[in-house]
Design a protein that fits this description.
Low-confidence stretches: 1-6
Largest sheet: none
Structural class: mainly alpha
Strand content: under 5%
Radius of gyration: 23 Å
Number of helices: 20
Number of strands: 0
């Protein structure tokens, strides 16, 4: 028993270090992502041209997500990790090669089909509310960015293989290269080429995303086999696991598609405002939730392969507590500081005060769903590790249908804000359903540890909210810069202080990790 506890402690320490490393790179990546939006906002504001770029991005992103995105990763990592656990690395790399070749072929064919049918897709399915000029621009941008989908497909598989081998550095660095390329496209090419400069940045960024990971893959002894072995048991298992996950991702993408269609019929700039609000909400979600989920997923998969559900339950509970500790106060902070934050970060040149008002609405209503989005990120991965991709898909499809119904109901009274609120409500319900089902699947979620942790986090978050709201109302605290510079560090300080006084174990773990 002592030996098991020592192994568990060692594994938790290793995961904490990996999570800290990935989180650090995610912070840099998200900071660059924020800088990317600042540059794009200054160049294009909430213009019709940017609306066209965002609409054009939908089809390449849809193809990537369905063929090579989360669907492939959630199916590939457990299967690849199982092959590695068996000790046959050559067999593992044959599996990776077969999947890569099949995926590249499928992505190439679908990209060609999408490029040929782009005018019809834009006119009838994607952005029927756009003007003829906007639709023509959308078609042109879509065709250019479809090339990046093929590159990203290979890069996503490489990322999954590296994560399965517990290598997180290169995959975490890849988004940094991607963001830098888009910033360069907007800054250096935006003036001369307009949003076409952004599309070129996407293409260059996709190439950089792949190339930065290749050296790590070579160092780990990767081998490539030119084969298309659809009869391989691992390939079939990945296909079996992917099938329901593809449906789930299709539901998510359908939500984005419906938002694009509905927003295309609203006044100019609403689609761009939704995009800015969504990306700002994703900053803390990416830094904390995605970093934790990225690190724990291979561990989940290994624990399942070892038939150790007790360890999986413990790891999941720890990950859930960590995510709640970071994202609950982040959601409150985004809601209370939305206007000054957006003013400081984005309001300049083409991004006007009117643009700020549109984005504030979107961000505040998206932030209501930040905790839901973050918890779903790790809860779904626990199901994937259990080789159950069907359950998250069924719940996700239900959430998608609810999202669409709520979007139609709320669009009239709240305009683009209704689309953001619908997303938050549906995602929160999805989170509750996944946690309830996972609790039954794992025989509990260590409620004796989870409930006190949640109470302490809620107490500290409430203190943060009261202080931030109160200081914004104080005489002399006016102006966006002053509010951000005063209230943001003050809120963080109050949260950490109350968490420390309440003896939050998550804070103690962070301090211990930093000392190490």
């Amino acid at each position: 028993m002592t030996h098991v506890k020592q192994n568990s402690a060692t594994q938790n320490t290793s995961m904490a270090r990996a999570a800290a490393l990935v989180m650090g790179f995610f912070i840099v990546s998200r900071a660059l992502g924020l800088l990317r939006e600042v540059v794009i906002g200054a160049q294009f504001g909430t213009s019709a041209e940017l609306d066209a770029y965002l609409a054009a991005f939908r089809v390449p992103d849809l193809l990537f997500q369905l063929v090579a995105g989360g669907a492939l990763g959630s199916a590939f990592i457990p299967t690849f990790a199982a092959r590695l656990l068996q000790g046959d690395r050559a067999k593992a790399w044959r599996l990776a090669s077969a999947v890569a070749n099949l995926m590249a072929l499928l992505l190439t064919l679908t990209a060609i089909l999408a490029a040929v049918s782009a005018p019809w897709l834009v006119r009838h399915l994607l952005a029927p509310g756009f003007s003829a000029a906007q639709q023509a621009l959308t078609v042109s941008l879509m065709r250019l960015m479809l090339i990046s989908t093929i590159i990203f497909g290979i890069s996503g598989l490489v990322m999954g293989a590296l994560n399965a081998m517990q290598h997180f550095l290169a995959p975490a660095a890849a988004p940094i290269i991607y963001n830098l390329a888009i910033i360069g496209g907007a800054w250096l090419l935006g003036g001369a080429l307009g949003v076409r400069g952004l599309a070129i940045g996407v293409l260059v960024g996709a190439a950089g995303h792949l190339l930065v990971q290749i050296p790590a893959l070579v160092r780990l002894g990767a081998r490539y086999f030119p084969l298309l072995d659809v009869h391989d048991a691992g390939v079939r298992e990945i296909g079996r696991l992917m099938a329901p996950r593809v449906l789930g991702l299709a539901a998510v993408q359908l939500n984005f598609w419906v938002n694009t269609i509905l927003a295309s019929g609203l006044p100019e700039g609403r689609l761009a405002a939704l995009n800015y609000g969504w990306l700002l909400m994703l900053l803390p979600q990416g830094i904390f939730a995605q970093a934790v989920a990225t690190v724990v997923f291979p561990t989940f998969a290994t624990q399942v392969a070892q038939h150790n559900l007790a360890a999986l339950r413990s790891t999941f509970t720890t990950a859930l507590r960590t995510i709640l500790f970071f994202t609950l106060p982040a959601a409150i902070g985004l809601i209370l500081l939305a206007r000054p934050l957006i003013t400081v970060l984005l309001q300049r040149n083409a991004f006007t005060a009117a643009s700020t008002a549109l984005v504030v609405t979107a961000l505040q209503l998206y932030a209501l769903g930040l905790v839901g989005h973050s918890v779903v990120e790790v809860a779904a991965r626990a199901f994937y590790a259990l080789h159950d991709t069907a359950t998250p898909v069924v719940i996700g499809v239900g959430a998608m249908l609810l999202n669409i119904v709520l979007s139609l109901l709320l669009l009239g009274p709240l305009q683009h804000g209704g689309l953001a609120l619908a997303n938050s409500i549906a995602t929160t319900i999805e989170m509750v359903a996944l946690l309830w089902l996972l609790r039954r699947r794992l025989g509990g979620l260590q409620a004796g540890m989870l409930a006190p942790a949640l109470w302490r986090t809620a107490l500290a978050s409430t203190a943060l909210g009261i202080v931030v709201w109160g200081w914004q109302q104080a005489p002399g605290v006016s102006g966006a810069w002053l509010k951000v510079l005063l209230c943001l560090p003050l809120g963080v300080g109050v949260y950490l202080t109350v968490a420390w006084l309440a003896r939050a174990e998550e804070l103690q773990a962070i301090r211990h990790l930093l000392r190490r």
